[in-house]
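Lecture 7, part B: from sequences to assemblies.

Below are the input chains for today's worked example.
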Amino acid sequence: ETGVTQTPRHLVMGMTNKKSLKCEQHLGHNAMYWYKQSAKKPLELMFVYNFKEQTENNSVPSRFSPECPNSSHLFLHLHTLQPEDSALYLCASSQAPPGQGYEQYFGPGTRLTVT
Amino acid sequence: KNQVEQSPQSLIILEGKNCTLQCNYTVSPFSNLRWYKQDTGRGPVSLTIMTFSENTKSNGRYTATLDADTKQSSLHITASQLSDSASYICVVSEKGGGNKLTFGTGTQLKVEL
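Predicted structure of the full complex, as structure tokens:
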């Protein structure tokens, strides 16, 4: 298991529900990421946080709201989701941007189903 | 537009056999290329990372090659095991791109007895 944990592992929610996904990294990294992985599609970067500050938001709908209270914890708050939001949501962390050659470590993901 | 294309989409091989997975990319300027293994219901785990100057890198039974001129990479798996059954994802970073990674859709490998 990597040093990145995610809870819950599975989540089923209705379109009117509000829920939150949690990610914690035990690696002392400075950057944390949320990705969406849909079937037969490449991973899509959603949000990036560096030193608790959001540095990237890749045109993600406002029904997804991230929160990073400290460098070790990352949340994704969900509300009024659509069925097409059903996917595997992956959290990752790295010491510095992966484009500079730093390794990115992924959590096990939360399998989200929106009914 | 930066793209990463992987082939085949899926592959079934017998235990003990070798196989090679392909990755073609259009990302430019190039920084590095990674291969990840993703077991079902788990997050991706890094196998190798190669920069422009490296043309081969091994990790146990996994050997990745890179031809930066033709923008192609391959992942060779030797003496496959049942535990190699997974999705293998090729990821390319753009130079100066920071967090901009271009992911392939993966090759789904199944190793059977």
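Note for the exam: Chain B has no helices and eleven strands. Keep this in mind when comparing with the next example.
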